[in-house]
Amino acid sequence: MDGGVGAKKPGVTSSQVAEHAGVSQSAVSRTFTPGASISSKTRAKVLASAKELGYRPNAIARSLITNRSRIIAVVMAYLENLFYPDVLEELGRRLAAEDYHLLLFTGFMDRDSDPVFDQLMQYRVDGIILASTSLSSDLSEECATAGIPVVLFNRTTQRDAVSSVTTRNRDGGRKIAEFLVAGGHKSFGYIAGLENSSTNRDRFLGFAEGLQAHGFTDIALGKGNYSRPDAEAAARDMLSGPDRPEAIFVANDHMAVAVMDVARHEFGIAVPEQLSIVGYDDVGPARWTSYGITTMSQPLKKMVEATVDILMDQITSGDIEAEHRILSGELVVRTSARLPRTGIVDIDGRKLYRPKDTA
Amino acid sequence: MDGGVGAKKPGVTSSQVAEHAGVSQSAVSRTFTPGASISSKTRAKVLASAKELGYRPNAIARSLITNRSRIIAVVMAYLENLFYPDVLEELGRRLAAEDYHLLLFTGFMDRDSDPVFDQLMQYRVDGIILASTSLSSDLSEECATAGIPVVLFNRTTQRDAVSSVTTRNRDGGRKIAEFLVAGGHKSFGYIAGLENSSTNRDRFLGFAEGLQAHGFTDIALGKGNYSRPDAEAAARDMLSGPDRPEAIFVANDHMAVAVMDVARHEFGIAVPEQLSIVGYDDVGPARWTSYGITTMSQPLKKMVEATVDILMDQITSGDIEAEHRILSGELVVRTSARLPRTGIVDIDGRKLYRPKDTA
DNA sequence: ATTCCGTTTGCATACGTATTCAAATCCGGC
DNA sequence: GCCGGATTTGAATACGTATGCAAACGGAAT
User: Does the first or last residue of chain B, that is N or C, have fewer Cβ atoms within 10 Å of its Cβ?
Assistant: First the structure.
């Protein structure tokens, strides 16, 4: 139709290298296939010719025949929350180490990320990582029957078909409750993430349980939806009421920072003297001295490691059985919340909350 | 179970669909090729069969024959600087709109990103975006002869072979100098990014020029290398000297935030009363009320748009001629620097520095 | 020299799709 | 009912690589 446009140069093929080196195309292929049967002599010849011609194996053609793309699809949202760029970077590192590559899909918030699913499948990716996103049940079913491993990162689902990597969010929420109660607080608030996310549900559940164990049943609620503007609005609402809570647990640091800004600069509230704020994730800004957020850490590197482990296992074994890895974090104590009298320990530079009794 | 290892299920092929629909494989192909010659009747038949069998065109096989992967490689570093995740998200959006996909390579700092180059080329990507990274001259040459467009994002290079998208960093630096001089400051400091990056050079050049125009030739220097720890160290150094500057221009917001933390919380310096800080980028944290960094904005969306435009143009035209797009930013005035008496205008909610005379 | 076994090599084929070309079909106008 | 042009169809081939298989090779033991 359109005359003579878009001419990407052909590129050197293995046959051309073969001819130049005076060997068969098979020999060239074997030269670049680790563990293939080839003499060091012809191998040297091939490598010389390849270098001279500027040959590079065509991964596309290779994929077609091996039925392996060596590509992992990553679907990720909330990139403005620094936790996820950090995850992305670590994922890139670890996948590269396994000689896998990362096809990124962004911008699909917490709802099912079905729109990108077709794209994924068309590229015959070897695995899928869903960070802060999920998949409708029939699609995860489809992955299972297609033999493509799926790992949910920082989310879980009831469905059995897909694996997941999370931390003990419920324990984390409970620990935060213990910490705040031990700190002498008497009234509490919770600013939620997206309400239908498992992470948010579990954190709140644990928090409520922990408070209830000490007789506190009343929790002021706000909806932050993991978004900074929403969290600010929720904070304004919660702080302007007649009896504002003494302590607020915010579902993640990204929002906790926003809440702190609102409290200090819009309401002139001193943190932690007049208000305690606790977050979750232990993300970069939480450590900045302007904030110093007390927060439940998530072991990012271990989580990524587990994710890649699961994928590699399932890819090489061909056995797609849902596996759930649940890791633990620490309550990192900084300056955004009033301290309990006891239970704070100092471990290689970090202050952690480790009370004696495990309730 | 199947005895072998790693059995990804075969997947439905166009031939299977063809057989099921009672047509030829060509017909199936044409059904999924927009603008191909096919009757609506057979098209309907094919679509029905495709749906029933769960057929999805194999992008890998398609690439092999069209010589187009519809994949763009993005090499990106400094993901801990929120500017880049924002870029990434916008890139993802825009590429998806053009039905292209994003193969991400991370972790290659400002030096040439040659290590990943082989990987890129093996996947026969249709284009390459280098954000805060460069390529050695022979490799960019290789791209040119291979007909693969390359765009540098937020960097430039002398070499003609590759395109680039930047902002007027030199003008930006100069404007910041004007702003600070107009604000009555008498002594100045500069905390640099990576020294061999064009962005850093240009910003400093403009800053020095602007100061010199008003007779200031002495600038305290620190090396931040675009890294938070380095910027903190440089700030400590600069602020602990006997005559610390009244105003510091930090090469980007990511570092400016760190410098501000050090000044306020380690040295107890009031900002902006005792020290003015100006950054660059207008990234998320610069807007947070704890910081309120006065900063030169970079028009992120327009930059990304220009980047994708260049790529699409060059891909469809096949004409790889280096193109350099240079956009302009604004000096966004917040609370981290003392204000000049005049020149501040209010434009839909943002305060900008727009002096009358363009020096 | 001959035999035998292990290693290396080349031939042929397969992967799943797009596209060229010629054959087949359609449709309105006579 | 037939013709001509436009549209639609299918057979064949190509894309660049990996791999099963049989043939060729190499060297050591006889």
Answer: N
CA distance readout (Å), A251 to A49, A205, A225, B48, B321: 59, 11, 9, 46, 50
Instruction: Report the greatest alpha carbon distance in chain B.
Output: 87
Cα distances from A21 to residues A36, A44, B282, in angstroms, run 18, 10, 56
**A267: exposed, middle or buried (Cβ count in 10 Å: 0-12, 13-18, 19+):** middle
pLDDT of residue B359: 46
Distance of CA B194 to the CA centre of its chain: 16
What span, in angstroms and rounded, lies between the C-alpha atoms of A207 and A331?
Answer: 13
Question: pLDDT, tens digit, for every residue of A156-178?
Answer: 987 777 899 999 999 999 999 99
Gyration radius of chain B's alpha carbons? 26
The two three-digit tokens of residue A15, written as one number? 């046959």
Concatenate the DSSP letters of all residues of A186-225 into one string.
--EEEEES-TT-HHHHHHHHHHHHHHHTTT---EEEEE-T
What's the predicted TM-score (pTM) here?
0.92
Q: In what order do the strands lie in the sheet with A331-332?
A: A219-223, A188-192, A247-250, A276-281, A294-297, A331-332, A350-353, A344-347
